[in-house]
């Protein structure tokens, strides 16, 4: 009898220990039939190309594991491993989207590893067209943000009556034997602050990247990244990418975003103002500023319509060089809590200040998104 009681106690203790820990597998598959078109006009010269096929249009497909362990006293250990997949192709590559470990409790949460930047987490919360669409063009503020940060330490505060904040630092892990000071190349830091009260939410996000060695390498033929808007050409026409150059060769990049949203019940609206600036080692600079307006309306319990409009201006050393406009339309119908069918359309359009050159990308399609 005594041995039986001891055995039962051991089983109960083991069960309690397992009950304090949990690991969950999760994932998302987003795939639809899409048509993408890039076009470019420079004076009398024109170029256009088109791609039809399967695309992840509103979310990147992924799978992963997340877990938490109750350490007692309100302290928990947490982890997340998340990998990208391409459901439309036979590929073995699984890019590391996020991978971090940390602790949470009454003090807030600390995470170590690859994770979303504080800036991206901020502006994504105010994007009402599905919270950061994937490949769909038309969301200009996406040009101002780095989505994820490697080698990062992130701290998020508790919720103080609606006020929360996060601060993040990323180690560049650079090594330069000729100049010890350059060991801080590629270091990054950023933060966000958000206040929510009833239907109103306001927030601010900031991001900075240091990378002077990239600027030195490209200063002999400097072209500020944001101004080099040229669609993909050559053999890659059969498989166009984003169509426009991103951030290249800058000495440093800083961005900030001020945003607000209000939920009227019948519809939710949002507004963002963004400002991104690149500095170069040859005393050159590029700036991209603008705004985004968004709206999302639940038409029925299952059908939601959302849209956004973006407007931006690019300047080189204070002189206007280009205008940019974009918009997105999305209709999503929830077949269940996990499965949604959707129709989407988006367009980016960039035009030189003198009107001689213009670049445009559009995409439309229908698809299905399933989460598990």
- CATH superfamily assignment? Porin
Enter the CATH topology name: Porin
**Which CATH class applies here?**
Mainly Beta
Terminal CA distance? 46 Å
Low-confidence stretches: 1-19, 212-248
The best one-word shape is globular
Query: What CATH architecture would you give?
Result: Beta Barrel
Number of helices: 3
Q: Strand sequence of the main sheet, in spatial order?
A: 1-3-4-5-6-7-8-9-10-11-12-13-14-15-16-17
Strand content: over 45%
Rounded average pLDDT: 81
The count of domains is 1
Largest sheet: 16 strands, antiparallel, barrel
Helix/strand order, N-terminal first: HEEEEEEHEEEEHEEEEEEE
Structural class label: mainly beta
Using the CA coordinates, give the radius of gyration. Answer: 23 Å
What's the β-strand tally? Answer: 17
Overall helicity: under 10%
What does this structure look like?
- By secondary structure, the chain is mainly β.
- It has a single domain, classed as Porin (Beta Barrel), CATH 2.40.160.
- Helices cover 9% and strands 56% of the residues.
- The chain contains three helices and 17 strands.
- A 16-stranded antiparallel beta barrel has the order 1-3-4-5-6-7-8-9-10-11-12-13-14-15-16-17.
- It is globular, with a radius of gyration of 23 Å.
- The two termini are 46 Å apart.
- The relative contact order is 0.16.
- Residues 1-19 and 212-248 have low confidence and may be disordered.
Salient structural properties:
globular; disordered N terminus; mainly beta; 17 strands; Porin; 16-stranded antiparallel beta barrel; 372 residues; single chain
């Amino acid at each position: 009898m005594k041995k039986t009681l001891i055995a039962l106690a051991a089983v109960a203790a083991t069960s309690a220990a397992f009950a304090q820990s949990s690991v969950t597998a999760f994932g998302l598959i987003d795939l639809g039939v899409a048509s993408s078109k890039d076009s470019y006009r420079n004076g009398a010269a024109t170029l256009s190309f088109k791609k039809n096929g399967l695309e992840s249009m509103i979310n990147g497909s992924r799978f992963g594991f997340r877990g938490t362990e109750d350490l007692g006293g309100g302290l928990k250990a947490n982890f997340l491993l998340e990998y990208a997949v391409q459901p439309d192709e036979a590929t073995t590559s699984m890019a590391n989207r996020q991978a971090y470990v940390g602790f949470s409790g009454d003090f807030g949460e600390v995470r170590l590893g690859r994770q979303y930047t504080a800036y991206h987490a901020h502006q994504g919360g105010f994007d009402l067209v599905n919270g950061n669409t994937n490949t769909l063009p038309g969301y200009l503020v996406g040009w101002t943000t780095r989505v994820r940060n490697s080698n990062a330490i992130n701290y998020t505060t508790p919720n103080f009556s609606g006020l929360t904040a996060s601060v993040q630092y990323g180690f560049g892990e650079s090594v330069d034997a000729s100049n010890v000071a350059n060991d801080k190349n590629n270091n990054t830091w950023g933060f966000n602050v958000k206040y929510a009260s009833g239907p109103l939410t306001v927030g601010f996000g900031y991001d900075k990247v240091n990378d002077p060695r990239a600027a030195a390498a490209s200063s002999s033929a400097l072209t500020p990244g944001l101004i080099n808007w040229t669609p993909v050409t050559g053999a890659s026409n059969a498989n166009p990418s984003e169509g426009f150059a991103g951030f290249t060769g800058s000495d440093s990049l800083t961005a900030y975003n001020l945003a607000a949203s209000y939920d009227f019940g019948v519809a939710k609206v949002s507004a963002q103002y963004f400002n991104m600036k690149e500095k170069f080692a040859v005393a050159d600079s590029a700036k991209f500023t603008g705004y985004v307006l968004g709206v999302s309306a639940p038409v029925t319990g299952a059908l939601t319509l959302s849209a956004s409009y973006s407007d931006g201006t690019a300047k080189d050393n204070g002189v206007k060089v280009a205008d940019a406009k974009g918009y997105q339309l999305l209709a999503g119908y929830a077949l269940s809590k996990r499965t949604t069918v959707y129709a989407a359309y988006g367009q980016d359009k960039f035009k030189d200040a003198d009107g001689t050159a213009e670049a445009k990308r559009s995409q439309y399609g229908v698809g299905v998104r399933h989460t598990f």
